[in-house]
Amino acid sequence: MNVAQHVVRGGKLFPGKVALSFEGHQFTYEELDRWSNRIAEGLERIGVVRGDRVALFLPNIPEFAAAYLGIQKLGATAVSLNSTLRRGEVQFILDDSGSVAVFTTGQLRETIDVEALPSLEHVIVTDGMEDLVTHSTGSFSPVCMDRDEPSAILYTSGTTGEPKGACLSHGNVVSNVHAFNFNCEMRPDDRIVLFLPLYHCFGQNAILNSAFNICATVVLQRRFDPAALITAIRSEQVTMFFGVPPTFIKMYKQATAADMKSVRYYFSAAAPLPREIARKWQRKYGHAIHEGYGLTETAPFASYNHKLQHKLGSIGAPIENVEMRVVDPVAGSEVPTGEAGEIVVRGPNVMLGYWNRPEATANAIRNGWFHTGDIGRVDDSGYFYIVDRLKDMVNVGGLKVYPVEVENAIYQHPAVEEAAVYGVPDPDLGERVCASIVLKADHELSSKELGAFCRASLADYKIPASIFFVESIPKSPTGKVLKRVLREQQPCSASAPVARGVSTAEIDEWLRDWLSDHLELTGAAIDADRSFFEYGMTSIIGVKLSVELGAWIGRSLDDVLVWNHGTLRDLMDYLSSRETPVAFLDSATDEEVGRLLEAELGDLREYDD
User: Fold this and answer.
1) Interatomic CA distance for residues 417 and 435, integer angstroms
2) Residue 590 DSSP label
3) Gyration radius (Cα) of the chain, Å
């Protein structure tokens, strides 16, 4: 057994078929098979052996797929790193996993502190990867692995905030991709768009490996960019679309039924899909959004809301060979049908354990059952529903943020006395990160200053979107922080601010400062005609910009503002040329305000249709 056998099979059965399409470049199954063979040979030549950990610190580019497959073929273990992590976060994962080599880009190479990593022997920059494969023949035969031998380590965190490596076996991955093929009815003639991060279990197993296993074509995108995605769907005649709830919300706003005409199947996971979006999507595009449930620790597929009986709002029933139960979180006994408890999972999809974390593994997997930390219930038909979380983790657009990790970063600031980080509901991202801060006596600190301080050690999506400076943080008699009370006291989704007059010069200055802070640029370096995404803008950062800009000018702005107006000049032109400029409400008559509200309601009715 070997995960990479699927691309070997594709190379033999469909040698000339496109396996991977990326920005005008196409790689056939035969080419991808030989490319990954050459990488496996190159790794073997520099001393990497079966069982060694080899890291992938890469964005969504073809080199990720080729390197991942080469690692699998050699029998080494692929360690995936989020490509937006900072130096300290990268160092922790590379050190904890004991990675002997890492694939990265020239730009990301600067984030790796080689001298602080004694086990790291090789840094392979993909721009010059030819050095690794120059003497390779391309005829490498994949190593035969036992089903319980490690295939991949994907890092996740628990309530302690310390990242843990979920170790997936070859058997975990192979069983899961077959389940995706079967349940999602994937076919060899499918063209599957992949914009979700390859470092994430969803993108890596549910889409990439599953597509290769059925010999379909993967249409790879660097990131979620609605305009580019719509173009790719049309030009590549995409047939399957896998996403997370925020992507469906954004696409609903931008894509016409004609844009999505070629797509026959939609799948959402990683966070609960709002029911209203599911209803509207089916009305507009003619197809239901199927939902799945799982975690990195379950490779990730565990349950599926399938075609036999689709139930709105449910995460479905367990996939084949997998069992799920709802148990009492304390006693561990199964609760009656309909009652809430912790969801537990057992099956060939459950991870081997957390890398080098025997205690954490024993706590998570008890008597063969993986305890998810999610509260749910099951109905009489065996369909499961998510109710709440046992853990305090915050789900920001499918990316998990762990409050303790953020709190630890905040506590490094000398002005902070106490900090509590928590999540609150957000209509587009699922949740947003908030922080309540108590300052030390005679100290001053602004939200902007604290955000900049956190940015030095945390990825952008982990930085609190709203920071509240308070006199005290509510606690229980035992001293436990009452985050439920904090959510009720300081909701990030507060009522809309009052609009105020702001000049275009002030907006330009604010935008340059904001971009400089969040993209690590200087205001002078920002070219007004250069795309925000060329500077490193992501979907999460883009939504954050729209929300914070709207809050500053006192006006609600569309969350997809930066996709529709992707340069500083374009955005400024849009803001300054609107029929209702930002200063309008300061001097408007009641009649003018009435016309404005009527226009806004007209837009809303069009959206609801």
Assistant:
1) 13
2) H
3) 24
- Look up residue 506 and give its two tokens: 């002030």
Round to whole Å and give the CA distance between 567 and 259. Answer: 24
**What is the rounded CA–CA span in Å between residue 293 and residue 283?**
24
| C-alpha torsion sign, points 368, 373, 377, 383 | negative
Where on the phi/psi map is residue 182: left (φ > 0), alpha (ψ -120 to 50), or beta?
A: alpha
Residue 199, pLDDT score: 94
The distance between the two most distant Cα atoms of the chain, rounded to a whole number of Å, is 77
Q: What totals of helices (H) and strands (E) does the chain contain, helices first?
A: 21, 26
**Helix 29-45 crosses helix 5-13 at what angle (to 10 degrees)?**
140
Helices (DSSP H) in 440-503: which residue ranges?
Answer: 447-455, 483-489
- Examine domains 394-489 and 504-608 and report if their fold is the same: no
Q: Which residues, in sequence order, are bridge partners of residue 157?
A: 163
Nearest-CA neighbor of 30 among 168, 139, 129, 143? 139
Bridge partners for 317 per DSSP: 304
Tokens of 397: 């657009």
Q: What whole-number distance in Å separates Cα of residue 467 and Cα of residue 571?
A: 26
Nearest-angstrom CA–CA distance, 40 and 35: 9
Q: How far is CA 507 from CA 380, 452, 502, 504, 510, in A?
A: 56, 20, 7, 5, 5
Domain 5-329+347-352: CATH superfamily, name plus number: ANL, N-terminal domain (3.40.50.12780)
DSSP code for 531: B
d(CA 334, CA 309): 25
Place of tokens 């803008």: 537
Residues 6+ apart with CB under 8 A from 431: 394, 395, 396, 423, 424, 425
Are the beta carbons of 419 and 435 closer than 8 angstroms?
Answer: yes
Select the CATH number that applies to the domain covering 394-489 from these four: 1.10.10.10, 3.50.50.60, 3.30.300.30, 2.30.40.10. Answer: 3.30.300.30
- Where does 504-608 sit in CATH, by number? 1.10.1200.10
User: Does residue 429 contact residue 399 with C-beta atoms inside 8 Å?
Assistant: no
Dihedral sign of CA atoms 193, 196, 201, 202 in order: negative
DSSP assignment, residue 525?
Answer: G
pLDDT at 203 over 60: yes
Q: What is the pLDDT of residue 580?
A: 37
Domain ranges of the chain: 5-329+347-352, 394-489, 504-608
Cα dihedral 517, 523, 527, 530, rounded to 10, equals: 10
| Residue 327, both tokens | 């148990």
Q: Tens digits of per-residue pLDDT, 313-341?
A: 889 999 999 999 999 988 899 999 999 88
Element housing 295 (H / E):
none
Structure tokens at 265: 């199947």
pLDDT digits (tens, 9 = 90+) for 452-472: 999 988 988 899 988 999 888
Beta bridge partners of 154: 80, 166
